[in-house]
Q: What sequence folds into this?
């Protein structure tokens, strides 16, 4: 038991057996989809350089990782303009992890820099959210915690499950 505790304190999260991981499983807050979403972004995990966004897709029910989740991202280029080069579709791996290499998004219209994210997987509610890079950062972790589909609390918070088709792959 002692060894297990030591391991959980010192080991990176991705090394831990899933039953040991005790991170927060609060559902990721919904955020505005904005006017620039377009479906069917190309499948890729590199749309720039200088900013690395990574994390794990999890279920709010038990913190378990969710593999095969479809993650769509769209953001501005460094100059603050939306373009096709900064759209991507990626999938969480067998441990629920995702990794996006991108440019630091330029701000626009008085808004802070942000990356739009839409997550879709069978059995869980669709999530539309945004990640806000901190000024000067070159990387960040952003876990995407989804509510199970049979938990209706998400709908009351404005989740946009009707935007996506659960389980669909491009
Ligand atoms: Fe935006």
A:
């Amino acid at each position: 038991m002692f060894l297990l505790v030591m391991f959980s304190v010192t080991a990176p999260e991705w090394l831990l057996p899933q039953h040991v991981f005790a991170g927060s499983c609060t559902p990721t807050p919904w955020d505005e989809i904005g006017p620039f979403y377009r479906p069917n972004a190309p499948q890729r995990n590199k749309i720039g350089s200088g900013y690395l966004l990574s994390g794990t897709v999890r279920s709010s029910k038990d913190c378990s990782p969710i593999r095969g989740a479809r993650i769509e991202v769209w953001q501005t280029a460094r100059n603050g303009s939306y373009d096709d080069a900064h759209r991507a579709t990626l999938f969480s791996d067998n441990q629920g992890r995702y990794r996006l290499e991108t440019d630091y998004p330029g701000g626009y219209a008085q808004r802070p820099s942000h990356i739009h994210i839409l997550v879709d997987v069978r059995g869980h509610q669709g999530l539309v959210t945004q990640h806000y890079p901190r000024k000067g950062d070159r990387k960040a972790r952003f876990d995407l915690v989804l509510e199970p589909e049979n938990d209706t609390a998400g709908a009351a918070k404005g989740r946009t499950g009707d935007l996506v088709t659960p389980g669909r792959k491009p």
Observations:
- Residues 34, 36, 114, 116 surround fe (ii) ion (CB under 6 Å).
